[in-house]
Design a protein that fits this description.
Blueprint (H helix, E strand, L loop, with lengths): L6 E10 L2 E11 L4 E5 L6 H8 L7 E6 L2 E2 L5 H4 L3 E5 L10 H11 L6 H10 L12 H13 L5 E5 L7 H17 L2 E6 L2 H7 L2 E6 L2 E7 H5 L3 E8 L9 E9 L2 E8 L3 H9 L4 E9 L1 H9 L10
Parallel strand pairs: 3-8, 3-9, 6-7, 7-8
Antiparallel strand pairs: 1-2, 1-4, 4-5, 9-10, 11-13, 11-14, 12-13
Helix pairs in contact: 4-5
The structure holds adenosine-5'-triphosphate (ATP).
Length: 305
């Protein structure tokens, strides 16, 4: 029996006029996956999310939610199953949070307030001011609560933690972990690889409108290590358990950079065994460094993220 993906993005391209915003994007998300979409400003994250929500029409390619094609004219049929929040809440802002949630409760035909009550307790938003007068963080709390309050099968979040203070960001990550563990399918965009890597089982990287990487959390975790840059008087090989970033002959000797993924003791032993050593540096190669490597324009796309 084949399991129907919750979301299928199949060869999707989007032009705004003559501007190519995203190009030939493919991916699928299965039930229960928590997937992050990471990219720099203007990479195309919001465009992809707006296409999935049916707010925009694709220029080419198809999107299916729960097996049904998404088109702007039928997207509303899918929306009861989908929770959505964006970092830039601009609808219903003349209502207070309390009025907005009462409206959504009727729209979703929710029988009880249990989930809403739990979320409000967790995020403690200001419920009695018009949404348009709220601080950015409080608006964001309202948007997040509205995305989860109906217990949807799929939640799509566009830069969901923007505007939240560090304490609320932590609450947000706990919510994603809790919902993910319950089997809710979640797709969220972010600028922050660290945030996404903490809660997502898979991360998609988008650059200049193209999907350049689709990696599991295990692959992301294996990107941790030490970045070593070594100069030697003779050419040498990198140690086992390392990924070579580059090597070249220079006026000073032979330079080589690699990510070492084994224990620091083994790295120390390897360094001590090099008799042609002229110089070396060691830095932490964390996720953010991996992200920078991927996004630095002058490097190839085949990076060890
Ligand atoms: P950010 O992280 O800054 O929110 P993003 O990754 O969400 O960026 P998009 O908003 O999807 O990026 O924009 C992708 C590209 O499409 C950008 O170059 C943007 O200027 C362009 N774009 C977005 N909306 C439109 C529009 N309505 N008309 C023309 N170009 C647009």
């Amino acid at each position: 029996m084949t399991i129907q993906p919750v979301l299928e993005v199949d060869a999707v391209t989007k032009y705004y006029g003559s501007f190519l915003a995203i190009q030939d994007i493919h991916f699928m998300i299965s039930k229960g996956e928590v997937v992050g979409l990471v990219g720099l400003n203007g990479a195309g994250k919001t465009t992809i999310i707006n296409l999935i929500m049916g707010f925009l029409r694709t220029s080419a390619g198809k999107i299916r939610l729960f097996g049904e094609p998404v088109l702007p004219e039928n997207a509303h049929k899918m929306h009861p199953k989908v929770g959505f929040a964006t970092g830039d809440m601009s609808l219903f802002t003349n209502l207070t949070g309390r009025q907005y949630f009462a409206f959504l409760k009727r729209a979703y035909k929710l029988k009880d307030d249990k989930k809403l009550g739990e979320l409000c307790k967790q995020f403690n938003p200001d419920m009695d001011k018009k949404i348009k007068t709220l601080s950015r963080g409080n608006k964001q709390k309202i948007a997040l609560i509205s995305a989860f309050m109906s217990g949807p099968e799929l939640v799509i979040l566009d830069e969901p933690s923007s505007g939240l203070d560090p304490f609320m960001q932590q609450k947000f990550l706990e919510l994603i972990n809790h919902e993910g563990a319950k089997g809710t399918t979640i797709f969220m965009s972010s600028h922050y690889l660290k945030e996404v890597a903490d809660v997502c089982s898979r991360v998609l990287f988008i650059r200049d409108g193209k999907l350049v990487k689709d990696v599991s959390r295990a692959e992301l975790e294996s990107s941790h290590g030490k970045a070593v840059h070594i100069t030697t008087s003779r050419a040498i090989r990198p140690p086992a358990q390392s990924s070579l970033l580059g090597h070249q002959k220079t006026a000073n000797g032979y330079e080589m950079s690699f990510i070492f993924k084994d224990s620091p003791i083994k790295l120390q032993q390897w360094l001590c065994s090099i008799s042609y050593m002229l110089d070396f540096t060691i830095e932490d190669h964390d996720l953010e460094s991996a992200f920078s490597d991927l996004y630095s324009k002058d490097k190839s796309e085949a990076k060890n993220v």
